[in-house]
């Protein structure tokens, strides 16, 4: 995902994490416009990150997408409860998250 975003041009990935507590610490310490979360992290669940984004109100102002191999309706519904508007199946919709990221950037540039 990092290479794909970097290849788009004007964007850059400023951080990545493989555990929810690491992701939350990074997100707490810097400004961000976008967050792409995998539900199954190496150590823990991306749901914890989504919960933190919602609790802090950052899910309302940032582009938040879930890209996961666990694209079951139950997970989609749970993510929607955390304010996620973009939910993609990693094996089938990888490129769609990039399209949604571009669309969001264009919307922000031309409100």
Q: Which helices and strands occur, and which strands form pairs?
A:
Blueprint: H1 2-7, H2 20-28, E1 34-37, E2 40-41, E3 44-45, H3 46-55, H4 58-61, E4 63-68, H5 73-81, E5 86-89, H6 94-109
Parallel strand pairs: 1-4, 4-5
Antiparallel strand pairs: 2-3
Helix pairs in contact: 2-3
- Counted up, domains total 1
Number of strands: 5
Give the CA-CA distance, first to last residue. 27 Å
- Measured by DSSP, the beta-strand proportion falls in 15-25%
CATH C-level label: Alpha Beta
Structural write-up:
This protein has a single domain, classed as Response regulator (Rossmann fold), CATH 3.40.50.2300. The chain has a 3-stranded parallel beta sheet with strand order 1-4-5, with helices on both faces. It has a two-stranded antiparallel sheet with strand order 2-3. With 111 residues, it is an alpha/beta fold. The mean pLDDT is 93. The termini are far apart. The protein has helices at residues 2-7, 20-28, 46-55, 58-61, 73-81, 94-109; strands spanning 34-37, 40-41, 44-45, 63-68, 86-89.
Task: Give a quick precis of the structure.
The protein is built from six helices and five strands. By secondary structure, it is an alpha/beta fold. It has a three-stranded parallel β-sheet, with helices on both faces. Strands 2-3 form a two-stranded antiparallel ribbon.
Top keywords for this entry?
111 residues; alpha/beta; Rossmann fold; three-stranded parallel β-sheet; two-stranded antiparallel sheet
């Amino acid at each position: 995902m990092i290479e794909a975003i970097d290849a788009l041009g004007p964007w850059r990935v400023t951080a990545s994490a493989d555990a929810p507590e690491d992701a939350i610490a990074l997100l707490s310490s810097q400004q961000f416009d976008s967050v792409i979360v995998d539900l199954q992290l190496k150590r823990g669940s991306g749901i914890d990150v989504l919960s933190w984004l919602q609790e802090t109100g950052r899910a309302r102002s940032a582009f938040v997408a879930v890209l996961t191999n666990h694209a079951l309706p139950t997970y989609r519904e749970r993510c929607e409860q955390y304010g996620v508007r973009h939910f993609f199946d990693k094996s089938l919709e990888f490129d769609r998250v990039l399209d949604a990221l571009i669309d969001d950037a264009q919307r922000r540039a031309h409100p």
